[in-house]
Every structure is written in C-alpha cells, then in structure tokens.
Design goal:
Blueprint: E1 17-18, E2 23-24, E3 31-34, E4 40-45, E5 50-62, E6 67-73, E7 81-87, E8 90-91, E9 95-97, H1 103-115, H2 124-127, E10 140-142, E11 148-149, E12 163-164, H3 165-181, H4 202-216, E13 224-229, E14 247-252, H5 253-270, H6 275-294, H7 318-332, H8 335-349, H9 365-374, H10 382-405, H11 421-439, H12 443-455, H13 480-484, H14 506-511, H15 529-532, H16 536-551
Parallel strand pairs: 2-9, 10-14
Antiparallel strand pairs: 1-3, 3-6, 4-5, 4-7, 5-6, 7-8, 7-9, 10-11, 12-13, 13-14
Helix pairs in contact: 1-16, 3-4, 3-5, 3-16, 4-5, 5-6, 5-7, 6-7, 7-8, 7-9, 9-10, 10-11, 10-12, 11-12, 11-16
Bound molecules: ligand 9MR and zinc ion.
Length: 555
C-alpha cells in the first residue's frame, strides 16, 4: 500500500533523495535530486548490489522549493531493472529503468476516466474492487424552468459529482488530440471497459461515453447548458448515494463553443470507425456553431445564489469561439467557418498571446491554434500557421530556460503554483512537445520528459502525484468514492492538483505553515481540495504527455 504523506508541517517522511518513481528510459537523461551534500551516489539493485556509482554535483539553490539541490546523474547507466539510489546512508524510493517504464502509468491515467463514469454502475470485471451501483441516472430539472431532461452519462468532473460542459469538452479534446498526434501509444491499449473488444479503439470508446453526454447537454436551439449538478456538493458518499436533486444550469456561450469544438474534432476522428456517430457529432457541432453566429455577444454563466458546485465562469468567450471556428473549418473546410476563425483571430490579436497557446480549462485557444496548424485544408493561411507555430515555439523556448534554472527541472516559476499546478506543468510539457514537432529540436523532448519526472516524484516532497503509481504516491485525494468505498488504497491513476501557494481551502491554510515555499505547498489530505483533488482535465493533460512518451519515436 502506498504510504500516506501529509506534507506541510509534518516531518519530512523521505530521506531527501528524490527520483521519478516510475523511472527512466535507456538513452534518456536520468537524474535524481538530493537535498543534502554527498560526494558520491550509488544505484542499488533489488538484491542490494551496487550496480553503478558516480559523483554528486551541486546544482545550487532552487527558488521554488527553497532547497539546496544536488544532482545524482545516472544518465550513463542504462541497464533495465528495478533500483534505488543510495547516498550518505539514505535511499530513494524504488524506480525502474526500461523502455516501457511509463506504460502502466499511461494505462492508469486513462483507465481513470472509466472509474469516473457517471450514470452507470461499475462492475467488478472492469473495475476490480472499485465497483459502484448506477448513479445520477434520474432526470434532472432545468433550473428556473421546472421542466426535466434526461442528461445521464459522461464523467464525474472530479472529486465532486458535478458534470460541467466546458471542463468535459476540454478533457475529451486532450484525449482526442493524444490519440490523433500519438496513435502508436494507443496501439493495443486495452482498457478493459465494457466496450473493449470492438473495432473501435478503447480510447475512443471511453471518449464516446463523454461525447454522448455532451450532446445530451445541447438544447434544441444548438446552445449548450453549462452544467448539471446538485445545488450543493454532496457529502463524502458513494455516487449512488448522492440523492440530491439534479439541476441543469443555464446556457453559456463558452459551453456552446467548447461543445461545438470538441464535437467537430471528434467527428473527424470517429469518421473512419463509425460514420453514423460521426454524422451526429457533425450535426451537433453545426447547430452549436449556428447558435454562436446568431448570438455574437458572450452569454456568461454565474452560479445562482445557493449553489456551491463548480462555476467554471468565463466573462470572455473569444478563445472558445476561436477554437470552435478552427475545428469547424478543419472539419468542413467551409468559407464561413474560415471567416469566423479569422474574425476571432483578429480579436485575439489584441489580447495576451497565451489565449492562443493555452489548453484549458479557462483558456482554450491553444486547441484552436492546434486545429489550424494540423489541418491540411489547402486554403489555410500559411502565414497564420507560421505565426501560431511561432507563438508556441517561442513559449516553449522560454519554458526550457525556466526548466534549466529549476533544481528539480520543473518549467515552473513561483506564480505557476496555483490550484491545479500539475495541469500547468503538463500543459508546459505539451507546449514543448509541440515545439519539438514544429522545429525538430530534440532539447524539447528532454525538457518535456523532465516535467513527468517532477510529477512522478522528483520533487521536494518526494511524492508521486498520481495515485497508485509509485512507492510514495498520493493516496488520500479529495475524491468522494475513494473514501466512501472503505478501501484503503485509492482508485489508481488519478492525477492530483499539486502544490498551490494560494492555499484556497481552509484545511490547507491550517496545516501548511505561512512562508512555505510554493513547491512545498501540498498535503495529501482529503480535506485540502485546493491541493490534492483530482479532475478529468488534469488527468487528460497528463495523458497527452504520457502518450507522447509512449508513442513518439522521434526522440
Ligand atoms: O480547476 C479549477 C481551478 O482552476 C479553480 O481555481 C477552482 C476554483 O474555481 O475550481 C477548480 O475546479 C473545480 C471545480 O470548480 C469543481 N470540481 C472540482 C474542480 C477541481 O478542484
Ligand atoms: Zn454519477
């Protein structure tokens, strides 16, 4: 069982040698971090034999953790196996060296979506011990109207049981792009889900579960309801025991645009496998697009009084419309969609560049840029494509500098440690992966992989932020079924939010002492929802990076 780690004010449970607990691939750079001085380190195998020795080098002071960092560089050691690093009488957590070291964690972060399915039961043959009865399958009341609709299905968003259109569209898009860009990673990836064994790749079956729900959230006029949740977050009960009244909350243009975008993207991807489904997706995207066109002003969503579930409110929807237009253009090649893409691009030109390079959940323009860059429509504007690739590559260069300055190799600065910082770190990795594709510069591959090392344990708390993945991994996330099921081990493959210097929940403020360095503002404590909750769009962001590591041969 994974050891519970409380972080914050608790004494440091680990010895100060921090490695990626999944491990490292032969031929790749392999470093672990020591937070104490030592002359030499050893790599020790499972029999306790020393198989490699090398000197430790002093990196310097690391700002985000306030640690003095020393590096154990074992790049030259490539023999596959299971090891620990030893230095100064201390040893690291276990890790592996081998080609397939990310395979299990890649599988787990994707299987996690199945565990988050809503509106069905999870059966033992697919879910092992983590079963539950069907949940949230009753009709929901349209808030303010009193009518009801059937909107069952989709994934629970997170540790709560809400289902939110923008968040869901974004997570689904990440997975679909992972499949589109790195199909090799999904070759033979059997998820053991109810749909397994059909012609449709399992990853697409899992995404379809969400897409079917998203289409239920679309109104007859093409617009999309923002979310379906209870009025207040449920207590820590199993999903089938959450019996609060379900409400469907009002339409927003960000939800409508994101639904349009992801359905258009999906229509192209499912077309070779399931034409009728692709047609339905295309029709849904088309009617959402029509709605947006006839409603040029943003319709924003705000939680009504008395509702405390996720808001995902966005005042401005330019980046959402930009994404929708780009996907519609890529799917249909229509002049109308292209013109709309140009219009939204011009609007974004007067706004910060990150709006065209971000991948969710509050800024989705990166998907729009990617859709435009990846399309092979002959009339696309090549100058625009170069410009967009330039934005992404420019950011990626800046990120590699950041990573090089960090003792832990994280392409992150103090300000990046906010709610869901692991998503920021994974998005940064994605920008570097895209820059690798655009430029062929191999240093991007190396720095992208460094972000995974940080996620999986080479960090100042020595914790793997993915449940069930690593000897010292998060095990107590803010995830309702993980507690209500009475099983000590958490459902595996859940990516926790990560360090958050803003400490946005009461418990985090109580247990993390003032002045704690940003990269240490974390506790694996279920009450600290602003630190260790899980969400579909954090998992999906990590899945994309793992797909690169498992499916890209260009390194
Ligand atoms: O991930 C969201 C984060 O960026 C916001 O700062 C935070 C507060 O608005 O909300 C997070 O999203 C949560 C959502 O509102 C409800 N489901 C759980 C999400 C993750 O904590
Ligand atoms: Zn449910």
């Amino acid at each position: 069982m994974a050891k519970t780690f409380f972080g914050g004010s608790d004494p440091e449970p680990l010895p100060g040698i921090y490695a990626d607990q999944a491990g490292y691939r032969p031929g790749c750079r392999k470093t672990a971090v020591l937070t104490f001085p030592a002359d030499h380190f050893s790599v020790v195998n499972e029999n306790g034999d020393i198989v490699y020795e090398h000197e430790v080098t002093f990196f310097g002071h690391d700002k985000c953790s306030d640690d003095d960092v020393y590096i154990a560089d074992l790049t030259a050691f490539n023999a596959p196996g299971t090891y620990r690093i030893a230095a100064g009488g201390k040893t690291s957590a276990r890790f592996r060296i081998g080609e397939g070291v990310y395979k299990n964690v890649f599988f787990s972060v994707i299987k996690a979506f199945y565990y988050l399915r809503c509106g069905c039961g999870l059966e033992e043959r697919h879910a092992g011990r983590f079963t539950h009865a069907p949940c949230h399958s009753e009709v929901a009341e349209v808030y303010g109207e009193g009518t009801v609709r059937e909107v069952s299905g989709g994934w629970h968003d997170a540790g709560d049981y809400g289902r939110y259109v923008t968040a869901g569209a974004c997570a689904c898009a990440q997975l679909l792009y992972a499949f589109r860009m790195f199909p090799k990673a999904f070759d033979g990836l059997e998820l053991n889900i109810p749909e397994s064994g059909s012609e449709l790749p399992d990853i697409l079956a899992e995404c379809r579960y969400e897409l079917e729900w998203l289409m239920k959230m679309q109104k007859e006029d093409g617009s999309a309801y923002h979310k379906v949740t209870t009025m207040l977050h449920a207590p820590f009960v199993m999903p089938e025991d959450d019996d609060g009244q379900l409400y469907i909350f009002p339409v927003s243009t960000s939800a409508t645009a994101d639904l349009c975008a992801v359905c258009a993207l999906a229509a192209g991807i499912y077309e070779p496998y399931d034409k009728p489904f692709a047609e339905r997706l295309k029709a849904a995207a088309g009617s959402a697009f029509d709605f947006l066109e006839s409603h040029p002003d943003a319709i924003s969503f705000r939680n009504p009084d008395g509702c405390n579930t996720g808001e995902y409110g966005e005042e401005d929807d330019t980046d959402n419309r930009y994404w929708a237009a780009a996907e519609m253009y890529a799917l249909t090649g229509s002049e109308r969609a292209h013109a709309e893409f140009k219009r939204q691009s011009e609007k974004l030109a007067g706004m910060p560049t990150y709006l065209r390079t971000s991948f969710g959940h509050w800024a989705v323009g990166g998907f729009g840029s990617l859709a435009y860059i990846l399309t092979d429509r002959p009339d696309r504007n090549e100058t625009k494509v170069q410009e967009l690739m330039g934005f992404i590559t420019g950011e990626a260069y800046w990120l590699t500098d950041k990573a090089a300055e960090s003792g832990y190799g994280a392409a992150m600065s103090d300000d990046d440690y906010f709610w869901g910082s692991n998503m920021r770190m994974m998005h940064n990795a994605l920008l570097m992966i895209l820059a690798l594709k655009f430029t062929g510069d191999k240093k991007f591959a190396r720095f992208a992989e460094e972000q995974i090392h940080v996620l999986l344990g080479r960090n100042p708390l020595g914790i793997s932020y993915v449940t069930g993945c690593g000897e010292y991994s998060c095990n107590d996330p803010h995830l309702r079924p993980a507690f209500a099921d009475g099983i000590d081990e958490c459902i595996p493959g859940m990516v926790c939010g990560g360090p958050n210097r803003q400490l946005n929940d009461r418990r985090a403020k109580e247990i993390i002492p003032p002045g704690t360095p940003p990269m240490k503002c974390f506790a694996d404590n279920k009450d600290c929802f602003s630190l260790n909750e899980v969400t579909i769009y954090w998992n999906a962001a990590a899945a994309l990076v793992f797909a690169f590591l498992c499916g890209d041969e260009s390194r």
